[in-house]
Amino acid sequence: MPARAGATRAADIADQIAAALAHAHQLGIWHLSLSPEKILIEDGEWVLVGGFGVESRARAASNHRANYDPAYASPEQVARQSVDHRSDLYALGAMLHEMLTGRTPSDGTLAERSTHDVTLELGSPIDLFGADVPGPFSDVVMRLIDRDPARRPSSAVEFQSVLNSCLRANKFRSSSRAC
User: Fold this and answer.
1) pLDDT digit string (tens) for 85-134?
2) pLDDT (tens digit, 9 = 90+) per residue, 132-160?
3) Helix, strand, coil % (nearest 5) of the chain?
4) CA-CA distance, 13 to 32, in Å (whole number)?
5) Comparing C-alpha atoms, which of 94, 84, 116 is closest to residue 38?
6) Is 79 helix (H, G, I), strand (E, B) or coil?
7) Rounded to an integer, what distance in angstroms lies between the CA atom of residue 99 and that of residue 10?
8) pTM for this one?
9) How many CB atoms within 10 Å of residue 102?
10) Which of 19, 40, 83, 119 makes the best surface tag, with the fewest CB within 10 Å?
11) Distance in angstroms (rounded) separating the CA atoms of residues 150 and 152
């Protein structure tokens, strides 16, 4: 997965990852260790998500700790609180943030992740992502990395809906921030 990508390429990658997450979540499988190392891009186009089947609802509900990269782990995961499918959505948001800005929302250390809320220090979406990223897209990325799981999109399908409305409107190349 590229460490930095334009808005259109990042949206395409995110859409394919979200499709894989939606399918897994329908089956009751949560990834809980999603990171760029688990994302393979075949022929420069097809996105493959590896590492599924490691976690299930039962193991996640018992606070089983997966091998995760703290830079992409949800705040509730780092704090060893109850997790659900929205932890995967946080990881998707952290990867999207990195593709759009060149950095993750946090420095990736457990100490940094557990002592303060990194999402409060990020700034506004326009300052982070630039004018070439449509407002609704940058807004949903910010929702994905919200510290509170209840404020994240309710599902990968909801995220895809917002993303696809931006893609259909073809506003990624426009100076307009509306989808």
Assistant:
1) 999 999 999 999 999 888 888 765 554 554 444 444 555 565 667 767 77
2) 777 778 888 999 999 999 999 999 999 99
3) 50, 5, 45
4) 19
5) 94
6) coil
7) 6
8) 0.82
9) 10
10) 40
11) 6
Adjacent-strand bridge partners of 49: 39
For 56, the 3-state DSSP assignment is: strand
Inter-helix orientation angle 135-144/86-101, to 10°: 130
Q: Which residue has the tokens 């499709």?
A: 19
Place of tokens 């808005």: 7
Which structural domains are found in the chain, ordered by start?
Answer: 7-169 (1.10.510.10)
- Distance between CA atoms of 123 and 53, rounded to whole angstroms? 36
From residue 48, give the alpha-carbon distance in Å to each of 8, 41, 77, 168.
18, 6, 24, 23
At position 46, the amino acid (one-letter code) is: W
Measured distance CA(145)–CA(113) in Å, rounded: 13
154 Cβ contact partners less than 8 Å away, ≥ 6 residues apart: 86
